Amino acid sequence: MSADATQTAAPTVKPGRLWIGGAYVDAEGGRTFDVLNPATEEVITTCASASPADVDKAVKAAQAAFPAWAKMSPLDRQRILWNIGERLMARVDEIATAETMTNGKPIFESKFIDTPDAAKCFQYYAGWCTKITGQTIPLSTGPFLNYTRREPLGVVGAIVAWNFPLLLASWKVAPALAAGNTVVLKPAEFTPLSALLLAECAKEAGLPDGVLNVIPGKGSIAGQALVEHPGVAKIAFTGSTEVGKGILRTAANDVKKVTMELGGKSANIVFADCDVEAAVRGAATGIFYGKGEICAAGSRLLVERAIYDTVVAKLKERAEKTPVGDPMHPKTRLGAIVREGQMNRVLDYIGKGKGEGATLVAGGERQPVGGKGWFVQATVFAGVTNQMTIAREEIFGPVLAVIPFDNEEDAIAIANDSVYGLAAGLWTRDIKRGHRVAHRLEAGTVWVNAYNRYDTATPFGGYKESGFGRDMGPEALDGYLQTKSVWIDLSEDKA
Ligand code: NAD
């Protein structure tokens, strides 16, 4: 049942340290934490663990670098950002290996999707450096010239999750730098290595020291210290809704600016008039890609009753043809769950699905590869109602809940009956229905006859408890800029 029953010999990765002021440094007191490979359950290296004092050093380095970076000519800034993309691609093998060995995602994803998309993100925002402009505003109050300037905020604290470590970091670092801010980046503790490689690439690309600092460490210590630090102007956060709510409360103390990219429980709606084969393919990609550890995963599949049994049968077949495998094997498409605790959480939800009366039609078990690893089979539940726990809570694993519906109104009501609103999909051959339903879904992204598509040029972010603010697209820049209105008196001197 596995793509490759044995594990390929894993390459080695170097230990992680803190990256402050353009150089590696140890954490205060030499504190470190272990970095594990989810596919082998082994410690692969260690990484420095930032204390509040280390966070303070990083913020001070970013503050010191800010004036010169903010003043640098837009063309020079553009050139550096473009080059970061080039450097990321020049080191794609090393970066993808670090990503896969710490996250458990297939090397196919980290090498051919995540790293190239991160490079494209820097190159997209490189183009914006020369295009951040204010406006000249016609006033009705007298002879004034009034114009606006869009100015950087200062030091941005970026805190990201472990599911797309490099890409999520790039979605924040690239627009923040393009807008003229400096950054202190805190990667997730499970996956600190690719953020450090990004910092190395940035230095190779000509980024001045201190403009990007990386402080691996625990969320409750390093993350918390970053949020509390008075020298940080803004927190750009990607993570769980629960941690996001805590950050919002702390950020209120000094009215820090925040953007929140949080959890999801996205609905993927299959109408009976759709191309069924395409919809089933899209439904499977929507939940099994990235092991389902995707904020926008299409974890609730809403299927019109007329084709419900057909779709469930086809999904069972697809799930069974999506075996878990060694993440380093180029043919693997379903890797290891990031940690044992996360795997147990996924298995607990599978238990709840069975306990609440859903029918398990595929998967449902842990399945080690070569006797090791935190792998969970591609899992499909049928007969799910939208009130069941597996339809309400974010599982963050390869578990699909298939829910029947009767008509368009019913589908929209079920889809919107969630505290989350990150993404949604719908499958139909009726172009009018496609637009009509897309407009009524309470979600920041809607895919029609597609799922899990991303492009740096278009914004991504949540409605409702999935957050606010946007990553990517021109909108992301708004989160890293503030507007100043300048008034010039043009009246003639009376004397
Ligand atoms: P998490 O909230 O546990 O951690 C996210 C980050 O916050 C980590 O770097 C962590 O160390 C840090 N953190 C934890 N406690 C903190 C604190 N008190 N103060 C400051 N920082 C703290 O989330 P996770 O388990 O790493 O990631 C999974 C979650 O992320 C899921 O809910 C998923 O939906 C969400 N996510 C959202 C998006 C999006 O774009 N909306 C993208 C990816 C992941």
List the helices and strands and how they pair.
Layout: E1 18-20, E2 23-25, E3 32-37, E4 42-48, H1 52-71, H2 74-90, H3 92-103, H4 107-128, E5 144-152, E6 155-159, H5 165-178, E7 182-186, H6 193-204, E8 212-214, H7 219-228, E9 234-238, H8 241-251, E10 257-261, E11 267-270, H9 276-288, E12 300-304, H10 308-320, H11 340-355, E13 359-362, E14 379-382, H12 389-392, E15 399-405, H13 408-416, E16 420-421, E17 423-427, H14 431-440, E18 445-448, E19 463-464, E20 467-468, H15 473-478, E21 481-489
Parallel strand pairs: 6-7, 6-9, 7-8, 9-10, 11-12, 11-17, 12-15, 14-15, 17-18
Antiparallel strand pairs: 1-2, 3-4, 5-21, 10-20, 13-14, 16-19
The chain binds nicotinamide-adenine-dinucleotide (NAD).
3D architecture notes:
With about 500 residues, the chain is an alpha/beta fold. Helix content is about 40%, strand content about 20%. The protein has helices spanning about 50-70, 75-90, 90-105, 105-130, 165-180, 195-205, 220-230, 240-250, 275-290, 310-320, 340-355, 390, 410-415, 430-440, 475-480; strands at about 20, 25, 30-35, 40-50, 145-150, 155-160, 180-185, 210-215, 235-240, 255-260, 265-270, 300-305, 360, 380, 400-405, 420, 425, 445-450, 465, 465-470, 480-490. β9, α8 (about 240-250) and β10 form a beta-alpha-beta unit. α1 crosses α7 and α2 (about 75-90) crosses α6 (about 195-205). The structure holds nicotinamide-adenine-dinucleotide. Nicotinamide-adenine-dinucleotide binds near residues 223 and 247.
